[in-house]
Amino acid sequence: MRLPPPEVPGPGGRTPGGGTTGVLLLTVAATVGAVGAVQWVAARTGSAWVPGGDLAVYRAAAGAVLDGGSPYEVSLAGYGFAYPPFAALVFTPLPPVGPAVGFWAWTVLSALAVPAVVWLVVDHVAPHRHGPGLLAAGTAVVLPLSPVAGTLLLGNVNLLLMVLVLVDLLRPHRHRGVLVGVAAGIKLTPLVVVGYLLLTGRTRAGVTALVTFLGTIGVGFLLLPGASLTFWGGAGLDGSRTRPPGEEAFGSSVRGAVLHLLPESAHPVWLPLSALVGVAGLAVAVWASRRHEELTGLLVCVVTGLLVSPVTWYTHWVWCVPLLVLLVARRPGGGGRRAIGGLWLVFALPLPWWVVHVLGLVPLTERAWVRPVELLYTLLGAALLVGAATRLRRIGPAEDGPPAARPRPVADGVGRR
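Structure for Alpha-1,2-mannosyltransferase, as requested:
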């Protein structure tokens, strides 16, 4: 992804971005570092994660499609393909290039998504502050976070989908909602953003996203009718496809917390609890939007989606990147900085234990580190919703602040229509 040059001149007429060359060098450096770290870990583990477990499942599913089969009939080490048929079509360029080249190319693209997200958020919230130094610092700070590192090592699509959503909603263009619809067609989790757009009065963008999503379903039925019937007929709700038989159901959603903490007889309570969290979270997101805190509303919406989804892995929390960048860009005071530091630690501390587990340096079972981490993420998600609501009660509408502190207005089809 090419990062656009800054639009707001800095002191002395210089652009704060320092030019395309500086941005390119910094993003390449960040990418090389991330790719090198991922390859180092992947080369030293004998697990099914080489060269990226999730990417290997994507490749296998796409290979089955190219061979005339169904992506839902393949399984690698007990892990099956759990995305819509449209995603299998999107992944068809992977098998022809081979696993090693595919993993390198995928990791480079995903690693470049990190500075892209940093740039998008800073440019939206504080366009007068973005530049190569901030881009480099922001990228270096968020790359070690466990959801980011986990996504890069596993070869998951999370970072790329996040970029699609942020580009669609934060950059001015005429076809607002198309990229959100495409992202939802690849993986269903961005569907919550479609609901957010409709609830906040952005009917045109919301309908565009919904029609685009339905279009991806239509493409799936046109090109893969059998696989589409399988997925939309129930395979898409089959949680057993996301883990080998007999493996415990981990998850950092409300459902995961209920499965971890409550006896089996109480497990059905996860559905009404999730509905309650979903209603409350979307209400806070809409409230933020009405206060012209658009990025806050989007992040609250996404966190709500992570909490109410039946299956949310720790790698899905890559949305911690725009969250942290947003908090830093607001120029917090002493207490705010400590809160940001604590939030960073929550997302960063699991990484050493995760690496220890992957490399097999100590006999640490997956249950011993995954369960506490994912429960922590569930509690953190709930705390973020409460914190956002508390902040919205304390502050006035965004227009009351000084012009320089207000985020750049989102235009061209994003306004309420």
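The beta strands are 75-76, 79-80.
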